[in-house]
Amino acid sequence: MRWSLMLAAAAGLVGSKSNAQGVLVPGPGPYPHDGGPGFGITRIVRTASAVQATLSDQVLHYEVDETYANRGGGLGEVDYYFPLPPNAAFEDLRLSINGEMVSGEVLSASEARGIYEEIVRRRRDPALVEWMGQGLLHARIFPIAPGEEKRVVVRFQSVITREGDAVRVDYKRPSPVPYSVGQAQQAYDTEGGESSFTLRYPAAAGYGEPYSPTHALVVRTSGDMKTVGVDGAARDITILLPVARSKQPAISVLTNAPSGDRGYALITIAPPAVLPQALPRDITFVVDVSGSMSGRKIAQARDAGKALLATLGPRDRFRLIDFDSDVRTFRDAFSDATPANVEAADRYLEGLEAHGSTNIEGALRSALGTSANGASSDDAERVQLVLFLTDGEPTVGERDPRALTKLASQMRGTRHVFTFGLGADVNASLLEQMALDGHGATNFVRPDEDIERAVSVVASRLRDPVLTDVRVEADGITLSSVTPTMIPDLFAGQSIVLLGRYQGSGHATIRVSGRTAHGPASWTHESDFPARSTDNSFIPRLWATQRIGWLTAERRAHGASPEVDAEIKDLGERYGIPTELTSYLVREPVMVGVAIPMPPPTSGMPRRGDATPAAAPSREARFEEAKQATAMRASSSLAAADSATDAYAAASPQAPAVRRIGNRVFERQSDSSWMDRNYKPAMRRIRIQAYSAAYFEVLTTLPELRDAFALGDHVVVAGRALAIEVTTDAGAPASLDAADRTALRENW
Known about the structure:
Elements: H1 6-14, E1 23-26, E2 42-56, E3 59-70, E4 76-83, E5 88-97, E6 100-102, E7 104-108, H2 109-122, E8 127-131, E9 136-144, E10 149-159, E11 161-163, E12 166-172, E13 186-202, E14 216-222, E15 225-231, E16 236-242, E17 250-256, E18 263-270, E19 281-288, H3 296-309, E20 317-323, E21 327-329, E22 335-336, H4 339-350, H5 360-368, H6 370-373, E23 383-390, H7 401-411, E24 416-422, H8 428-437, E25 442-445, H9 451-461, E26 465-475, E27 478-483, E28 490-491, E29 496-503, E30 506-516, E31 519-529, H10 539-558, H11 562-575, E32 582-586, H12 619-643, H13 647-651, E33 658-661, E34 664-668, E35 674-676, E36 684-689, H14 693-701, H15 706-709, E37 715-718, E38 722-727, H16 738-747
Parallel strand pairs: 2-13, 19-20, 19-23, 23-24, 24-25, 35-37, 36-38
Antiparallel strand pairs: 1-4, 2-3, 3-10, 4-9, 5-6, 5-10, 7-32, 8-9, 8-32, 11-12, 12-16, 13-15, 14-15, 17-18, 18-29, 20-21, 20-22, 26-28, 26-30, 27-29, 30-31, 33-34, 34-35, 37-38
């Protein structure tokens, strides 16, 4: 998935002083206050944080379990910000409600927000997870009452990355940057509670001894699993697991085919350890030096250019282009990366000053124009890279982002374009589309972060190209909807991870081809693609997350369209992923339509409309009163839920009951049955009695349906070409006949 600039805009809210990833920020709350000392203060502290990452089949499964408490006297809404790592797929967020951990459901963004606000008015306990750009989740949680604790559990998956001869596991704790909530009666604090990070992986997986450049490690083996704990207070955690060196390229395939329809595939391509002669590079660094880059930004840009020069090898060549209202170059053509030329370029960078406007069109024409590049632009033996850094919108020359994107696409040729947006004023859509079209990537960096590190990391990873112009094809099955849509080049010590759908089944050959320093190359891998398989159930959500990321970038670049919007909403709802158009809502079980008896305000509590608030009791007394009110509310809520029937959940047309089971979404019908959204009226239904011999035979044959059947005694589950209906109707068959068994085998 691509990172959105909205990350930078929200960055001020993500910081905290504690050693865990999520951050709770007190909101303004719907309650008035009397201005007395201590009244209404919402003081949130983190009391515990436990992060567990489990590595299995190239994928890290994260569970972040955190507990917060309100040590103040105010009752109000709080916001939970959670930054996901790149290429991560959100699975779910669970919230403690009345002592029970409750998961959520995906609804349209407007519907979820409306339900949330209605619940807030009733002072119930929902949590709304909204999309704030790729990489950042925002959960609005209400209420966290005085003396109350809230436990939040977030789960997500991420594909591992390779660094040289090791796979890399990263966990980034938030920067200790203070934020402003703008309300005098609010505060955020930490008690320094327990905090832990644990990595688990199979002991027989063949990894070497774990190493961390950031922390001391404690490694234990228990049964068939290894557990790695970290010791130290450093904010960012990095763990490296050495992998066995291979003289051959490594291609691995993981599959999942839950419905017998199109399956899902995760394909990993790793280069050989013994490399052929690496291809030389032509690198163009384009840097914005307009007036808005003054101060720290221009210093960062100079350092970024120097960091890039430090990655050059003796066979590489480079160009430096700086632009404001005008465009200038270090030299007219590419320079060889000799010590003398690099030293001269360092001096050139040191002399850069910020002034003028932002002429992105002129910079693109200079960087991508054939005449400016000379012979190297047509030199098929060299890899050509463009790194483009800016902090603002175009203000001189062509200003239309679509026109600039089209210009870059037309002039790019074989160059790979990597873009860097510094700060919140850049045009995210323009930079994303330039990178998408240019087989590159986009990095958005806050002004308080190190842009030089971001540039040097990209340049270092692009140091030794092994295979360029990469193509992946399949014989025996058909691959489709592959992400990323533009397959990147393969570099030494890195791997390419592709996610896609496949049609067909059986034995197939994956063919990876491209260009090396010695000419064309092709690698193959034999693999079986099953017609049905419940293994690797995380792959569909990873694929859907990447697909949504690509669609969202297209939506920002070209505007909304009914087709793109419909696909984003469908993917978000089907796979339980917050998007621009869908949100994830946690609701108290059996709550819709239930009246909430609330305790009357005490004599010391101000009421809406009171002209003069009564004298406030002591802070300790208010704390105890509010704590008792919280207990009463929880007790009343539980009693109401116990006496309610399932009809409440179906009573409100604004809030239909929806449950997600794995990759299936079920809706509660008016008769309290659960219907799979994939069901089509034309499908044949196989009806079976609940808990009969047929019921247990189906579960033995299709064990992946256990969670779906657990919804209740009236469930319809859809397969590829037929459906299974579980019912308590006495007329439903209690056993399967031969025709039913054949239909399940051939059409499920």
